[in-house]
Amino acid sequence: MLLGNLLTDGGLSVISGFRFVHCADLHIDAPLKSLALRNPELAELVANATRKAFVATIDLCLEEKVDALLIAGDLYDGDQTSMKTAGFIAAQLRRLDEAGIGTFGIRGNHDAESRITKELVFPDSVTFFKGSAAAIPLPGQVGRRDVVVHGISFPKPHAPESLLPKFKAPVEGAINIALLHTSLAGAEGHDRYAPCSVADLAGAGFDYWALGHVHKRQVHLEKPAIVMPGIPQGRDINESGAKSVSLVTIADDGSITIAEHRTSTAQFERVSVDLSGIEDWPEAMRAIGRKLAAERDTTASEHLIARVSLSGATSLNWRLRREADFLRAEVEQQAAIIGNTWIEKVSSACSAPGDVTIEAAGAVAELSQLVSETVLQSDAYRLAASELISELQGALPRELHKIFGEDQASFEKAVAELSQDGALDVIAHLHEAEQEPRI
After folding, report:
1. Residue 180 is inside which H or E element, if any?
2. pTM attached to this predicted model
3. How many domains does the chain contain in total?
4. Which domain holds residue 326?
5. Alpha-carbon distance 130 to 107, whole Å?
6. C-alpha to C-alpha distance for 300 and 303, rounded to whole angstroms
7. pLDDT tens for residues 162-218?
């Protein structure tokens, strides 16, 4: 049974409103999306981070003594069959059940057909809406008004049409909350699912739209409240920054307050380091360490996972590229000194002093020019490179197929970038190592 938050006034208990936590897109125990997580400890950290984010979400519900938890889809991924994942989720929801806190959830495109949903026995306080719209009344939650929670799940992974027309009408005189997994009018990096516009939602008569699917947090509208809470835990560099859930309070007068609460334990960030004018390897490493430390100081989450990009004109440019493994080890050492700092990837786009790509005339310079101006531009080379990368793509697990791009244009861009990087690596190894300072 759901209980409204209670305040004691002269021995009398009065309902103070309706409070809930709104989250979405946890993707608990989903496979890692990045091939760059070569460090086993880092891979384990990221793999467990979604669980920790869910625990943090449950902890917030208990600490704030909310009335309900709303999960707007993609709690886990549909191709997961591990009952360990199911057991973990059930155990966390039981914590809410024991505290008298209800859970309302919908299934999105990732968990639409999950075996976990079908086989797991949830506590009575947990409601996952089915593929047909439903409305659940909660009597007397806001003043003397009812709260009605509406929702509809994806019956199948694909929902090409709007689900808005399928919702039951808002209940007159009540506070109406609706859960919907949707891409809205479209978002970068996300396929279109159950498309609709903010204007469509605003005109539907609901007081709060608890959305899910787009991993970036955004309050689209305050009245009525239309909220995309974002992902509670980033899983790769494209989901950078601290992540969170929303704590929502609906007061007796119907006003709505939305507060963001961080849940991420690990935070991906891009760290750019300019090595211009630095000619000494140890000094370059110290410069990288200083930049990592500065980023660590501003990181809200417990752990920083950094993608380090080097730039600038330095005579170290060829060595930085040629000794990539040694460079990564050195940068990881800097991260270890800082603490709770991890390196996802290190890349160098440094150039020679004077912005000269090839430092001197000779065989290596001529070869570099030939590769850049002739080989990389040839249709035959691009075709061969595309075939090799397609073959590699086919050998990868399904969840990693999109690392080379979401469509043909992004795939071709990835092929060009990989080809350019490979060419520079070859030239770096051929370049005269003795031209550069050594430790």
Report:
1. strand 175-182
2. 0.79
3. 3
4. 265-356
5. 8
6. 8
7. 889 999 999 999 999 999 999 887 555 556 677 899 999 999 999 999 999 999 999
